[in-house]
Automatic annotation (TrEMBL), chain B:
Taxonomy, superkingdom: Bacteria
Provenance organism: Spongiibacter thalassae
Taxonomy of the source species: Bacteria, Pseudomonadati, Pseudomonadota, Gammaproteobacteria, Cellvibrionales
Protein name as it appears in the record: Imelysin family protein
Signal peptide: 1-26
Keyword terms of this UniProt record: Signal
Length: 369, 373
């Protein structure tokens, strides 16, 4: 259903259902619909689903959104606010209607990422407990009871950022950035000399941190990750010191081992040491976006071999689209492009004038709508 | 985007209403943006790549001559050709759009900053190895020793870049590497020039004809933004990477680091900044009628247009006032107030470009490079 209509859902959130801008051009879609947060040229913020050549639905949000996660069973999309992350929004994944707007618990704020448990019962979010001076926690919410907050778990470190479920769904893996920040101090790092970034595994049965793996260097802040079908965790870093650091920025972790650098590639023109999105496909490859260097990079996970790179100005989100066997990548210039392993050029999929896609996007699976 | 789509809509209507041809002509009369883009290619981009190509050809010739007659005079001649090539590279270095962004070309030309002295180590390792030096072995070697950085090492290093190094038994191999690198550079420079040329890859068409199916510039606004982003990129590169970090003006690492100075072996940092600013100023001014400066003025921003021009002039004067390379200044504990002056003028230029230019042009700068996470 696509109608031109603007529905004010609340004073802070409005929904627009748009008709496709160019119906003639989307006779055969070349990619699956994507969910993403975005920012407009005029300074506004949106969250929505983009299909073919237009918004399937779009919500105007009061603050910048960051990551998105899908509740497959309930066909809901959860959008997270970022900086400050006061709320997350639960939206009907087909109509775009707002189901819930959930505030962080007192003294807490979201870091912008979350994940739904395998059985669809719980939502886990990375949060900062500003009340205790910046302790990193995992918020647990009950998806079957209107996303009611249940409890907080120890996240294993300061500054938990992106998280994912391990295969089997019994454990979470969390990228620990290590940076202590408090809303009262803006973006200032309050513990510059005591950074302890790493990867934390949390057993959901015992609610305990079952393993913590230190980053190879205290200034390699680990932020974004994805888990391959084989259970390899690939994590990307953002270096918190003078760049370029010359350090490897993408690492693979297998339970019980150390973080292993994917092939450091001296031929990559990396100057800003900043990984924004990490996305694994189902064939043993991983793609990372490095917006500050206008790059996308592709590695083979098993042997850590660097495969290829693409230049994409202001690259942002990245996600694997299994239906079309391609990575869909977005950028801050409104472009959605396909990155196909082995293909030299990126293929333009869609263009949203004036839209700056944020750093994360998610593909809607087949049969969603 | 607006121009193109409205034009297309009118053209579509033309099929239905053939008598509205006059309306079509007036609706499609060239808007200033395509003229600006064409002018930028004509007056800045093509000349920059042409100059770089010519300088690379001269480096090949001078390297050949030197290897046939290894003496001080020929060495000085090839050093001068290297300096000309570096100055010519200063243009493409501050124009990070189009084919130069592919295949890691910038690092194939210049590997900097080289915190771990990789260029010297990899050049010497290649020379020590058993393989013959030719285009095949160079293509298999690290990309960081295929360009001007490795040539600089071979021509200016206090050990590896002296005449004596070429007069030893191993000198012939060193000369073979120098010539092979010069050839490789010439290939890159020729390829870059032809990639823009209408008879070659014709990236000019990509840049000057934005549209929904254009993978690099889906609308005019983004092509105009590429020019502004180049100027900002260049000013940031000079401010942060060429001055702030190596001179210890960075709060994070307040000690001068002479080995982070660009082209420290050849003491060519000052000339490089001068060539960068000259290329940026040219990119900004274009030809008098249709450059970015004139475009800004025509859009009602004559004051800003003038201010940016003046900021360029001040920065150019400030770099001209230096009388030694930044390597010497960074190595001298007394420093040099003229470097601070240069730093201030470049910072002021950057502020104008970053704060005021996007608004005036109605463009948005990269979002993720500003914020992100």
């Amino acid at each position: 259903m696509r109608r031109r209509e603007l529905v004010k859902l609340s004073t802070q959130l409005s929904l627009a259902l748009a008709i496709p801008t160019a119906p003639a051009l989307c006779a055969s879609p070349r990619f699956s619909p994507v969910c993403s947060a975005a920012n407009s040229r005029a300074g506004g913020h949106q969250l929505g689903v983009w299909q073919d050549n237009g918004w399937e639905f779009r919500l105007d949000a009061p603050l910048r959104g960051h990551d998105v996660c899908l509740h497959l069973q309930q066909r809901e999309v959860v959008f997270f606010e970022r900086r400050p992350g006061r709320y997350f929004y639960v939206v009907d994944g087909r109509s775009g209607r707002l189901h819930h707007r959930i505030a962080a618990q007192a003294g807490h704020h979201f870091y912008g990422h979350g994940i739904i448990s395998a059985d669809g019962r719980y939502l886990y979010t990375t949060e900062n407990n500003a009340g205790t001076g910046g302790e990193g926690v995992i918020g647990v919410y009950d998806c079957q009871q209107d996303y009611r907050w249940l409890k907080h778990l120890d996240s294993g470190g300061i500054g938990p950022h992106e998280l994912a479920l391990m295969p089997g769904g019994e454990e979470l893996v969390v990228a620990i950035g290590g940076l202590k920040t408090l809303p009262s101090h803006g973006r200032k790092t309050l513990n510059p000399d005591h950074l302890r970034p790493g990867l934390a595994y949390i057993n959901l049965g015992t609610a305990q941190v079952s393993e913590f793996v230190d980053a190879p260097h205290p200034q390699l802040s680990l932020r974004h990750l994805d888990v391959s079908v084989d259970g390899d965790v690939i994590v990307g870093a953002q270096y918190q010191g003078p760049v370029p650091s010359g350090r490897a920025l993408v690492y693979r972790h297998r339970r019980g081992g150390l973080l292993e650098a994917l092939q450091a590639n001296n031929s990559l023109p990396l100057l800003r040491d900043y990984v924004a999105s990490v996305a694994c496909d189902d064939k043993g490859k991983v793609l990372c976006s490095m917006p500050r260097d206008n790059l996308l990079t592709l590695w083979s996970i098993n042997d850590g071999r660097f495969l290829q790179s693409w230049h994409l100005r202001d690259s942002a989100g990245a996600c694997y689209d299994p239906r079309y066997e391609q990575f869909v990548v977005s950028n801050g210039r409104g472009q959605l492009m396909a990155a196909k392993p082995g293909h030299r050029d990126l293929l333009p999929l869609a263009y949203a004038p004036g839209v700056q896609w944020d750093n994360h996007l998610v593909i809607l699976p087949e049969g969603w709508s | 985007m607006l121009y193109l789509s409205s034009c297309r809509a009118v053209l579509a209507r033309l099929l239905v209403l053939p008598f509205s041809a006059l309306t079509v002509l007036s609706a499609c009369s060239p808007s200033p943006e395509p003229r600006l883009l064409a002018s930028v290619v004509e007056s800045s981009v093509l000349p920059a790549y042409f100059t770089y190509k010519q300088a690379s050809e001269n480096l090949v010739v001078a390297s050949r001559a030197f290897c046939q007659a290894v003496d001080e005079e020929h060495m000085e001649s090839v050093r001068q050709s290297w300096r000309d090539s570096a100055s010519a590279w200063a243009g493409p270095q501050v124009m990070p759009f189009g084919p130069v962004t592919e295949d890691n070309i910038s690092w194939q030309v210049q590997f900097w900053p080289d915190r771990k002295n990789l260029v010297a180590r990899k050049v010497e390792a290649l020379l020590r190895g058993g393989d013959e030096i030719n285009d095949v072995s160079l293509a298999q070697a690290s990309v960081i020793i295929r360009g001007l950085s490795a040539a600089e090492y071979l021509l200016f290093d206090v050990k590896g870049g002296q005449l004596a190094a070429y007069q030893r038994d191993s000198g012939a191999k060193r000369c073979a590497l120098l010539q092979t690198i010069a050839d490789y550079q010439q290939n890159i420079a020729t390829r870059l020039y032809h990639s823009w040329d209408a008879d070659g890859g014709n990236y000019t068409a990509t840049f000057t004809r934005p549209g929904p199916d254009n993978p690099d510039y889906p609308d005019l606004n983004l092509a105009v933004a590429a020019i502004a982003e180049s100027l900002i990129f260049g000013a940031e590169l000079i401010k942060r990477d060429k001055i702030e970090r190596p001179m210890g003006l960075d709060r994070e690492s307040p000690l001068p680091q002479p080995y982070l100075v660009e082209w420290w072996r050849s003491r060519y940092s000052r000339e490089m900044i001068l060539a960068n600013l000259t290329a940026m100023h040219r990119l900004y001014s274009g030809d008098a009628q249709e450059g970015l400066a004139a475009y800004l003025a025509a859009k009602g921003h004559a004051k800003l247009s003038q201010e940016v021009d003046e900021a360029f002039q001040r920065a150019l004067v400030a770099v001209n006032a230096l009388d030694s390379s930044l390597f010497e200044v960074a190595s001298d504990p007394r420093g040099d107030p003229r470097v601070t002056r240069l730093y201030v003028t470049v910072s002021e230029l950057l502020t104008l470009l970053k704060r005021d230019l996007p608004k005036a042009l109605n463009i948005t700068l990269s979002f993720n490079s500003k914020d992100g996470d």
